[in-house]
Design brief:
275 residues; alpha/beta; binds 3-methyl-2-oxobutanoic acid
Length: 275
């Protein structure tokens, strides 16, 4: 296939460049986490712009109480499934704890692995001024980086829990300095998590790159939610999230109906049996 035909086919693919064009627009863009092919396809067809293979897979799928145990191999495994399901959405792979903290070189090596083996088009990593060099080096290796500042779950032990960041004058200055640092380092977008809405607005106006909020008010250029919060698949919904469906209740209902049918020998019926 010629290069021209290939690019025409991908005309509607969301890219880091097309997201940049949506900076400051009245209509915000949407990002959701996805961890497998099924939800990747459903969300992609629903028009979600960005699919994040988040290290939240640790909490949501693996049943861990933090994201810290998640490994690069696991993110690669989930990224492959999500990448196969997405035709239009930009797929971003989260760099798990330990995959970029030791040195920028190791960060570059692991980001390359996520692109090569996971099929993602960009990587996300947490931190601000402390990861500036790592972002620069990954971007220099031609891999787009989505940054993540404010409440950064991989820093749970430093933060002393999942606490809103950027409160008080010093707190605000720190989040602003982090956001400016990741932009200067070459990040194409930045997630603002768990920060006061007015601070997120100020940062969104200050930066030339798109901001993506979670627990950061309505003024960011985009919003992100975790799949399990959106669909009611968790025991509780965080106050900053909105549950748009209760698939947990539906799944439980279906499982109970099936168990009852099995117990009463109503399933399988003749139509489900071979003669
Ligand atoms: O891992 C994740 O799901 C995330 C989002 C909450 C932004 O980092």
């Amino acid at each position: 296939m010629s290069t021209v035909t290939q690019s025409a086919k991908r005309e509607h693919r969301v890219t880091t460049r097309s997201l940049q064009r949506r900076k400051g627009k009245a209509e915000a863009f949407s990002m959701l986490t996805a961890y497998d092919h099924v939800f990747s396809r459903i969300f992609d067809e629903a028009g979600i712009d960005v699919l994040l293979v988040g290290d939240s897979v640790g909490n949501t799928v693996q049943g861990e109480d933090s994201t810290l145990p998640v490994t690069l191999d696991e993110i690669v495994y989930h990224s492959r499934m999500v990448s196969r399901g997405a035709r239009r959405a930009l797929v971003v792979g989260d760099m798990p704890f330990g995959s970029y903290q030791v040195s920028p070189e190791e960060g570059v090596r692991n980001a390359i692995r996520l692109v090569k083996d996971g099929g993602v088009a960009a990587v996300k990593l947490e931190g601000g001024r402390n990861v500036k060099e790592t972002i620069e080096r990954i971007v220099a290796a031609e891999i787009p980086v989505m940054a993540h500042v404010g409440l950064t779950p991989q820093a749970i032990h430093r933060m002393g829990g999942y606490r809103v960041q950027g409160r008080g004058e010093t707190g605000r200055e720190q989040v602003i300095a982090d956001a400016l640092a990741v932009e200067a380092a070459g990040a194409f977008a930045v997630v603002l998590e768990g920060v006061p809405a007015d601070l997120a607005k100020e940062i969104t106006e200050m930066l030339a790159i798109p901001t993506i909020g979670i627990g950061a008010g309505v003024d960011c250029d985009g919003q992100v939610l975790v799949l399990h919060d959106l669909l009611g698949l968790t025991d509780w919904t965080p106050s900053f999230a909105k549950q748009y469906a209760n698939l947990g209740a539906l799944a439980s209902q279906a499982a109970r109906a099936y168990a009852d049918d099995v117990a009463q020998r109503k399933f399988p019926g003749d139509e489900h049996s071979f003669s």
